[in-house]
Amino acid sequence: MLNKLTLKQAIDKLDNKKITLEDIWADVLSAIKNQNDKLNVYLAINKNFKSQPNKPLKGLPIAVKDNFCTKGTITTASSLLLKDFVPQFESTVTQKLKDAGGEIVGKTNMDAWAHGSSTETSQYGKTLNPRNTQHLPGGSSGGSAAAVAADMCIASLGSETAGSIRQPAAWCGVVGLKPTYGRTSRYGIVAMASSTDSPGPITKTVEDAAILLNHIAGHDPLNATSSSEKTPNFTESLDKPIENLKIGIIYHNLEGLENVWKLFAPQLKIFTKLGASVKYAQAMDPKHAISVYTVVQRSEVSSNLARFDDVRYQHGRDTFGNEAKKRIMLGTHTLSKVFNTHPYSLAQKVRTLLIKDYEKLFKKYDVLISLTSPGFAKKVGATEGSAMFGELEDMLMEVSSLSGMPGISIPCYRDEKTNLYLGMNIMAPMWREDLVIQVADAFEKNTDWNSWRKND
After folding, report:
1. 52 in a domain, yes or no?
2. What is the CATH number of the domain that holds 286?
3. How open is the CA angle 76-330-198, to the nearest 5 degrees?
4. What percent of the chain has pLDDT over 90?
5. β-pairing, 198-203 with 367-371?
């Protein structure tokens, strides 16, 4: 069962010639064959690969969200409008993945156009949560998170606009790392909200996330919002003590979180045991971020989706799903001249206030920690009739996404009855992925919540 290996384990075993790449691929493809019809994780599968022993990722099978353009391989963004779209170019992130020796095993299902937090808006059918198939995997990177949770790949890539990496990672009991905005290139990714879109890894362990981020990060001249900030070696943040770090706990007193907080709060004691200073901090109510994000995202969606039509992509705008149509209409309305208040401009001003609130907190604390999502994975069908489902489920991450800061979600509790997980969201100032990796790695290695570390 080599498909159950972590990325680091697989690399080490290949280096030591204890296993073969062919055997890893055989087990991964077998897992896909046995589970994909039920879980609906992959929209396209690649069975061809080549051994790359002299490259860091060795030719290992990596799953990729279906909004990354992959040359010669269909890319749909889970929308019928793009059902025949085969890109003639490669996204920068997937090109970097390939340059490092990663092989794309398949393209994963997602909320259509990344609109949602459930993977129920996909026009190719919903994905189910491998931990409990009566529940949703989250989204919009639900397929990538489910692929990791079901050992249908060794690691995966997703993208986040406001929770779309971390929330499905939390619901599926895996690790999801959203880098600083601009740390990874947006070039070649089907745009959702351009001012917050961030590609990143979804993996089995924190170590795997650091390894994958090393290979996909970096400046890209093809992406105007790509930063020239020097890219560190993120694996150097592993196995570092967290004593003397100052940790602020936020969103602990929100109405409606009382029951789940009783399960989450005891997990925080590990940081004190490891020598960190842990204090409860007061941040602006995250509910303010819901309206800001809704206005900003809908507005940018209406602009970005304007380019998709039958002249370019063979299929007309009538093939948009209901969610896309609603977001286009609301965004277009928000940007129209009928408002004297200019909602988009107002939202950006409030966005600045939220950013400044976090900047103030980071003068006192090295990292901020909260729940990733307000609760466990919701049941299949939960999005029906809920126009703000995603915004409510991503509420605790929206400020960090709007602020451009990095964050990571790691498993921190498992319910024995349902086999569902809670996620812990660790955030740091921009360009400090090293801190979120350091703290997350310390928690993971000193607790038993990560299901793959139990097998070490």
Report:
1. yes
2. 3.90.1300.10
3. 45
4. 94
5. unpaired
Asked if 65 is an active-site residue, the reply is yes
C-alpha dihedral sign at 313, 314, 318, 319 = negative
How many domains are there within the chain? 1
> 78, 79, 117, 140: which is the annotated catalytic residue?
140
Query: Is 349 among the residues known to form the active site?
Result: no
Pairing of strands 42-45, 61-65: unpaired
pLDDT tens sequence across 175-204: 999 999 999 999 999 999 999 999 999 999
Which range marks the domain in which residue 328 is found?
2-227+242-455
Buried b (16+ CB within 10 A) or exposed e, 238-261: beeebeebebbbbbbebeebeebb
Catalytic position from the list 78, 122, 164, 373: 164
Catalytic residue among 58, 65, 96, 98: 65
Does some domain include residue 233? Answer: no
Packing angle between helix 206-216 and helix 433-445, nearest 10 degrees? 160
At 286, list the tokens. 């995250």
Does the annotation count 122 as an active-site position? no
3-state secondary structure the chain: CHHHCCHHHHHHHHHCCCCCHHHHHHHHHHHHHHHHHHHCCEEEECCCCCCCCCCCCCCCEEEEECCECECCECCCCCCHHHCCCCCCCCCHHHHHHHHCCCEEEEEECCCHHHCCCCCCCCCCCCCCCCCCCCECCCCCCHHHHHHHHCCCCCEEEEEECCCCCHHHHHHHCCEEEECCCCCECCCCECCCCCCCCEEEEEECCHHHHHHHHHHHECCCCCCCCCCCCCCCCHHHHCCCCCCCCEEEECCCCCCCCHHHHHHHHHHHHHHHHCCCEEEECCCCCCHHHHHHHHHHHHHHHHHHHHHCCHHHHCCCHHHCCHHHHHHHHHHHHHHCCCCCCCHHHHHHHHHHHHHHHHHHHCCCCCEEEEECCCCCCCECCCCCCCCCHHHHHCHHHHHHHHHCCCEEEEEEEEECCCCEEEEEEEECCCCCHHHHHHHHHHHHHCCCCCCCHHHC
pTM (predicted TM-score): 0.97
List pLDDT tens digits, range 107-133.
Answer: 999 999 999 999 999 999 999 999 999
Does 353 map to a domain? yes
Q: Is position 237 within any domain? A: no
The answer, yes or no, to whether residue 400 has pLDDT greater than 90, is yes
pLDDT tens digits, residue range 339-372?
667 889 999 999 999 999 999 999 999 999 999 9
Show the tokens assigned to 411.
Answer: 């498993």
